[in-house]
Amino acid sequence: MNNSDYFNLVVIDIFHRCSMSFPIDADFTASEVAEVVSGFFEPDVDNSDLVEIVWSSVGWLVREGFLTDRGITDTGIAVTFTNKGLNATNNVPSSISGKTSFKEVFVSGLSSISTGTASSIIAEFFKNGS
Predict the structure, then answer these.
(1) CA 18, 65, 97: angle at the middle one, nearest 5?
(2) How far apart, in Å, are the Cα atoms of 68 and each of 44, 63, 117?
(3) Which residues, listed in sequence order, are joined to residue 80 by a DSSP beta bridge?
(4) Among residues 101, 99, 54, which one has the least CA distance to residue 77?
(5) What is the pLDDT of residues 91-107, one digit of tens each?
(6) Percentage of the chain with pLDDT > 70?
(7) b vs e for 50-76, b when ≥16 Cβ sit within 10 Å of the residue's Cβ?
């Protein structure tokens, strides 16, 4: 796996958390997201590398305007969708069959998709959401 594969899964987990808590900030730690994502990989994946990817992914999503960062809290990271991010979640991806929106995919979380599907979904999300 390369960093972009990890990024795709991290984004889906973060967007899952944001979808479940919106409009309240999603409050989580980078370690919590890394642990969920590490379930998709061999046991030799270094969680400290995944934690760094989580932090970098949150920063990128904020800089690109998909999330608003409320800063580091006592419990970790606090983010929520911006208007751009929220609007992008309402699009329907062609990479999955049916009329399921990105939001419905994100609400289901990582347990409902494969790693390959995650890459297609995230690529299409950013293509349509910008």
Answers:
(1) 60
(2) 33, 9, 26
(3) 68
(4) 54
(5) 655 555 566 667 777 77
(6) 78
(7) bbebbeebbeebeeeebbbeeeeeeee
Q: Structurally, what CATH architecture does the domain formed by 3-129 represent?
A: Orthogonal Bundle (1.10)
Task: Please give the model's pTM, rounded to 2 decimal places.
Answer: 0.80
Q: Which amino acid is at 86?
A: L
How do the domains of the chain map onto residue ranges? Answer: 3-129
| Torsion angles phi and psi, residue 72, rounded to 5 | -80, 130
Taking residue 84's Cβ as centre, other Cβ atoms within 10 Å add up to 13
Cα 100 to Cα 93, 95, 115, 118: the distances in Å are: 7, 10, 18, 14
> How many CA within 13 A on the CB side of residue 60?
13
**Rounded distance between C-alpha atoms, residue 73 and residue 78, angstroms:** 7
Q: Decide if 30 contacts 13 (C-beta within 8 A).
A: no
